């Protein structure tokens, strides 16, 4: 009997699937994915101050993951909103909330395992409201152009909570499955359960990264996984449907393994470029600035985010306001920053960092 897309999928099978998952093709793909992920973890450890990474790369992840849900903003709007979020447009604010949700989850798993409570906290942060598991029937995934129903997730609070409880057990039970294969299964299952009225896609993509951190495959949530999904969006949804309708697990798992491998390479390269630019800026500042001005903290302050202003130096304890202004002017004369007047405020752009993140 063919799968009925218009009927709530209340009998969604629990994980793991009753089939051979670690096929020859999947085992081969896990080797490459693990190698790339290990390289990313290693290069992340070379950064002297992790704060140089925790703003920039996760912001790219936030932008791409939101773009998958047709929430689009620009790099420039994001960078400026970091300094003045109140003045940002709604789309930009929602992207920034994604990054905040990522860090909320990252802090949460330091003291407790991934769970429904963390999923709910992540989704609530993304949506900026108190999110609960769906109670009202009628949720369906539709083609935005035609209105055709593509998938109807499980319905009924007790049914949804039952599926989530089963998913939690699977996440934490001992399995002879490779953790990257398991991540792919968990991601499908969460998307299939679709527990919240909105924000499921973004919550699910955050869970991917947190799962890798929980398993010790990453130390910081800096994998830009949504980049791959944005570039292969139609295939992403097609393969999700393939699992649901035809049990095509191998194709789905291979897609996710390739996503990990591809984005690990990309993220590693970005981190190396940022570290190289940071090191060169440090050498330049140490050689050209007076000894009373130069400090590693000053250089770090202009690499924590692409836009800098006087308040950042003041709050960091580097200098008082008037002196901080002079420091930024000196950095601009060295070519490290470019002054830009926005309203009444003067901002200083780290154009090298912007170029790295925008390419």
Overview of this protein structure:
With 359 residues, the protein is mostly helical. It folds into two domains: 24-263, Fido-like domain (Fic-like fold, Orthogonal Bundle); 289-358, Arc Repressor Mutant, subunit A. It contains 16 helices and five strands. The strands form two sheets. Strands 3-5-4 form a three-stranded antiparallel sheet, with helices on both faces. It has a two-stranded antiparallel ribbon with strand order 1-2. β4 (338-342) and β5 form a beta hairpin. α1 runs parallel beside α12, α4 packs across α5 and α8 (179-193) crosses α12.
What's the short version?
With 359 residues, the protein is mainly alpha-helical.
Determine the mean pLDDT: 90
* Helical proportion, percent range: 55-70%
Q: Return the CATH architecture of the largest domain.
A: Orthogonal Bundle
> Mind telling me the C-alpha Rg?
22 Å
DSSP strand count: 5
**What fraction of the residues are assigned to beta strands by DSSP?**
under 5%
First-residue to last-residue Cα separation: 48 Å
Strand order of the largest sheet: 3-5-4
Strand-and-helix sequence, N→C? HHHHHHEEHHHHHHHEHHEEH
CATH fold call of the largest domain: Fic-like fold
- Alpha-beta classification: mainly alpha
CATH superfamily of the largest domain: Fido-like domain
Biggest beta sheet summary: 3 strands, antiparallel
Q: For this entry, what is the oligomeric state of its chains? A: single chain
Q: How many structural domains can be distinguished in the coordinates?
A: 2
């Amino acid at each position: 009997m063919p799968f009925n897309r218009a009927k709530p999928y209340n009998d969604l099978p629990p994980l793991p699937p009753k089939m051979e998952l670690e096929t020859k093709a999947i085992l081969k793909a896990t080797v490459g994915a693990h190698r790339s992920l290990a390289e990313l973890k290693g290069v992340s450890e070379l950064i002297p101050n992790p704060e140089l990474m925790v703003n920039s790369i996760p912001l790219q992840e936030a932008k791409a993951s939101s773009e998958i849900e047709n929430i689009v903003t620009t790099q420039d709007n994001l960078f400026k909103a970091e300094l003045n979020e109140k003045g940002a447009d709604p789309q930009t604010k929602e992207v920034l909330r994604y990054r905040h949700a990522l860090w909320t989850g990252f802090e949460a798993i330091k003291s407790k395992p991934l769970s429904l409570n963390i999923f709910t906290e992540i989704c609530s942060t993304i949506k900026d409201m108190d999110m609960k598991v769906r109670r009202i029937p009628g949720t369906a995934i539709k083609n935005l152009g035609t209105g055709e129903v593509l998938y109807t997730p499980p319905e009924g609070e007790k049914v949804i909570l039952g599926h989530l409880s089963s998913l939690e057990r699977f996440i934490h039970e001992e399995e002879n499955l490779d953790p990257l294969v398991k991540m792919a299964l968990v991601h499908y299952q969460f998307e299939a359960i679709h527990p919240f009225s909105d924000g499921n896609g973004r919550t699910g993509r955050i869970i991917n990264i947190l799962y890798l951190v929980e398993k010790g495959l990453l130390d910081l949530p800096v994998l830009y996984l949504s980049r791959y999904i944005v570039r292969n969006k139609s295939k992403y949804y097609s393969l999700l449907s393939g699992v649901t309708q035809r049990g095509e697990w191998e194709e789905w798992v291979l897609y996710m393994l390739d996503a990990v491998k591809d984005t690990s390479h990309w993220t590693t390269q970005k981190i190396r470029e940022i570290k190289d630019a940071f090191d060169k800026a440090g050498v330049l500042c140490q050689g050209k600035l007076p000894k009373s001005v130069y400090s590693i903290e000053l250089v770090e302050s202009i690499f924590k985010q692409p836009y800098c202003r006087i308040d950042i130096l003041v709050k960091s304890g580097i200098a008082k306001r008037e002196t901080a202004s002079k420091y930024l002017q000196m950095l601009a004369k060295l070519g490290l920053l470019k002054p830009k007047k926005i309203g009444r405020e003067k901002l200083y752009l780290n154009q090298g960092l912007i170029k790295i993140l925008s390419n």
